[in-house]
Structures are given as C-alpha cells and as structure tokens.
Amino acid sequence: MQQKQSKKSKEEEPIFNGSFKDQSDDENDDKRKKQTLIMNVSDTKYDVVKFVGKKIFKWILQYELDGVNWDMFWTDAAVQPETLGKMQPHQKINHFPGMYSLARKNHLGRNLMKMRKQFPNDYKFFPQTWLLPAEYGDFKNQFVKGKVRTFIVKPEASCQGRGIFLTRNINDINPTDHYVAQRYMHRPFLIDGLKFDLRVYVLLAGTDPMRIYVYQDGLVRFATEQYVTPTTNNLEDVCMHLTNYAINKENPNFVFNNDATKMDVGHKRSIKSVFGKLEEEGHNITKLWQDMYKLFIKTFCTVQPILNHHYKSCQPDNYANNMCFEILGFDIFINDKLRPSLLEVNHTPSFTTDTPLDSLIKKNLIRDTLKLMNVSLKAKEEIISSRREQLQQRVLTGKKQKLTLEEKQLLIKQFSEQRDQYENNNLGDYVKIYPLEDSHEYNKFIEFASQLQDNWTGANIRRNQKKEQSETQQFQISKPPTIPVKKPNTPQMLPKISERQNRIHQSIEPNAEMKSKTQSSLGKNIKESKRQVSDPPLPKQHQSMRNVQQPPQQQLQIKSCLQPKLFELDILSSQNRSNSQNKKLNQFKLQ
Hints:
Layout: H1 2-12, H2 26-32, E1 38-43, H3 47-56, E2 60-62, E3 72-75, H4 81-85, E4 92-93, H5 100-103, H6 105-118, E5 129-132, H7 136-140, E6 151-155, E7 165-167, E8 179-183, E9 196-207, E10 210-215, E11 219-222, H8 238-241, H9 245-248, E12 268-270, H10 271-280, H11 285-314, E13 326-334, E14 340-346, H12 356-372, H13 377-397, H14 405-424, E15 430-434, H15 443-457, H16 459-478, H17 494-508, H18 512-534, H19 552-590
Parallel strand pairs: 1-2, 1-3, 3-4
Antiparallel strand pairs: 5-8, 6-7, 6-8, 9-10, 9-11, 9-13, 10-15, 11-12, 13-14
C-alpha cells in the first residue's frame, strides 16, 4: 500500500522544466506561516531548490538574507560557525562548518596523504598527490631522465576545470605558484571510445556518529574527443583527457540530452542508464558500488574529527545530531578493471538544470534529501514542545538542568534510534552505508585522524599537561607527611655539651647583677620608655597633660614600640651565645 501511495504521489508531483518563478502572495503567506514551514532561499541561485520547496513541499520562500524565522536555510556558500551557533534546535541548514577540509583540493590531498602513510593498503583509492610549492622539491624529483611521466596540475581552490593542465616538464610550473599536482591515471574504462567520470551524490547527515547516504542516481560525464594515450603532442587536448562538463560543453562535438526518457544518450548520461548497460554486458556493478561505498566512508573518516569539533563547538546540546546536512559531489574515475578512484570532492555541486536529464535527477535528489532529513511541521512542533518543557523546569527550579555523562549517552542513543526508524522508512533513492553493523572496522581510521587533529591543534599537549598535574596532585595527597627526626645525643658528645654549657654560664654570671637591676627597673621605667618612643617632647605648657589617660590607639603604639626593645635584649643574649660558640670552635680547631 505504501509503495502504491508513493508512486501515486510521484505521478501527481509537478514537473520541473528547468526554471521557476515564485509568484506567491505575501498576504496569503502571512496567513499560512503557522500552518507550514519557511525556507530561506536568499543565498541560492538554483531554481530547482526553490521549485522543490514551493511546489512539492508547499513551503513559504523567504528572500531576506537577514531573516531569522526560517525553518530551512539553503545556501550555495560555506556555512560559518557563527551561523550555526545562532540557530534554533528546529532549524536546519544544508552545509557543515569546516567542510573546507574535504572540499578544497589542497586540504583533501594533505589529509588523504597522511592517512596513506599510516594505512598504505587501505588508502590506495586516489592518485599520488603533491602540494605545491611546499612539496616542490619532492615533486621535482619525479622528473627523471629516461622515464616519461604525465602529471595533471590543478589550482588548489578552483572548480569546473578552470586552470587545469597536463605536463611532462617541470619547467611548466612556477615554483612559487600554489597548485595540487597528481599522477595522471592511465588505462581508463572507455565507453564508445570515450573517457568518462562519475558524479556521485553523497549525503552527510551527521558527524557523531557519521550518517552517510549515497544516492543511487547521478551523472556520467564524457569527454568529447576519442581517447588516446597521452603523448607530448596531445597533452593540450583537454577535451580528450578531461571530463569536466564546463569544458566539454563548449566543444562542437558535444551532444546534449534533450529527452528525459532517454537517459543513455549524449555526452552527459545518468548513472542508472550507464550501469544498467554495463551490467547487461556482464560487469559486476554490485562490487563497483561496494568499492565506492568504502571509498566514501574512508574519505569521511579523515575529516570526521574536524567536522565534529566544529559542530559540537557551535551546538553542544544538539544530541539529535540533525541540524546540518550536506550533499557532496564525489568525482570518481573508473579504470579498465572497473576499480574506482577519487578525483575530488565538491561541497557545492552544481544544481544547474540546463537539460531535462539534470532537471529530473537534481529535483528528485533535493526532494529525497529534504524528506530524509525530516524537515516537516510535525518534527518542528515536537522539538519546540520539548524545548518548552525544559524551559519550564528551569523556571521552576531556577537552575539549568545539568546532565551526567550517562544521561547524555542515553539521550544520544534514543535520538539515534528515532532517526534510524524514520530514515529507514523514508530513504527514497538513497542507500545508507554508515553506520552499519560492520562499521567497527573503520574505527581505527577515525582514531588516527583524531590523533592527527590533536597534534595539529595542540590538544594532546594540553591533555598531557592536565594529566601530569592530576598525577602529581594525587601523589602529593597519597605521600605521607615527613616528620623531622632529631639526632640522639651520643655518649661521645655529652662531655663536649656539658663543657659548652659551663662556659656559657660563666660568661653570663658577671652580668647577672646588671641583669637583675635591669629587670627591677624595667617595670618602673616602662611608661617612661613608652613615652620616649611614642610621644615627641612636649612644651612646658602641655607638661600637665602627661597624667591624662591615653586613648587605646596610642596604647597599642606603646606596646608595639616596647616589643623592639625586648627583641634587642634577645639579640644581645643570642650574640653572647654565638661568640662563645665561635671561641669553642676555634679551640677545637687548634687542638
């Protein structure tokens, strides 16, 4: 029954003819705002996106870039962390912050080459890569006399084939220019004598855990000149060696597809039509898909720590892991043994619809993506009601509810199960490839990528410092306090000690009489000494005021001045002791 209903809905679905003009009424849209969702399309140029939102999902389109009351934001540009940080839990956006680590050619090459050094057998699915000018010296060593090697050189941040050229001469490259150089891949799989590549659409719907889906239809883009092995004479024939649509469509030989019912005609065809013919010829297309699935997962593993760090820094409390998604265009090269290799990844694949083939595939792709991400009024209301309950509890208790680690893990598991149940019933033309039951084999790649990320950011240094501090604190707490041990008086030391005491006593006796006089007169003269220390001499007319009782503050001053006097007496006695000790030491040395 569900399949019949889905077929009926697809038949009743409006047809997209490649262009769209929004003729909405603002007054009616204001009335419908509470009954439907709002899609912000202010930062996209593609009509197919607006068509899907308006005609298929019946959403209101918002064209103000600074609008905040949207539910779905579709942009053709990269998303900054600040944008994600300001979003509400029910809002969704079609990019992840930090995706430059995968989409820019230099970042992709650097990350993949690091993984290849650690896992050489697992990361063989892309050509050897050099990042110029940083690796110019190593790249220069590849040009050896007697060996002819062909390289393809690309600007590090370009698209649509701009600036790409083939070379066999190191002098063609300026040592200071920024390029990504790769070994040219020979022996391509040919169809009708033409080289081709695949544009496969891969959806990343979460970062921790990663949720990866692959669309079962895409584009096959052909070169427009018969393929010949590269030679010095044909290196400049880009329409033979490059399969970029933007380059080949300018060639007079290019054949456009003008009939959506015939997907296997022209220099741009659908993946389904091409794979169908190859399967009829006896090729193992199932294995080809499986090899590509592994390629996609391993590629995402290299950047999972980066994407997850950006996402959790912006939305730490989004345990559903569902506020961002991204459709990426993987460009795949197929060799003569039907083995796939990664050419590059596009984080903003073109949604231009200049042929009926493009219109059909890209419309269905965007529709299935938005449905899979559960962009619906029901999901929005559930999130808002849950948020309202949390705020009410916070008002009642006066505190923000802090979840333990076990509670957070339980929430993550519950949301993940809910998503699995919904997404498995709303895949459309998508296939889920990660996570699956056997996904644990990819953990080692993510763990190593996390180590690389920690080394790059210095997080491992800070973590080790904290660990050392905690260990030292625990050691100090567990270590028993040290009690000073007094050395016992040995029998050999007793005669020397008694002799020393006698000498000290003899030195003190002549001064005993003076000491007693001092002690007796000390009590009588203490007030006088206080006055002498604390009070300046007074005139005769104020002498009578001496008998007046002094305030407490002045009494404190007198006591503080008396203490230095007593301290001086102690110093004198200690000096006498030290002198006697020195004398004894000198006598001992003479002996």
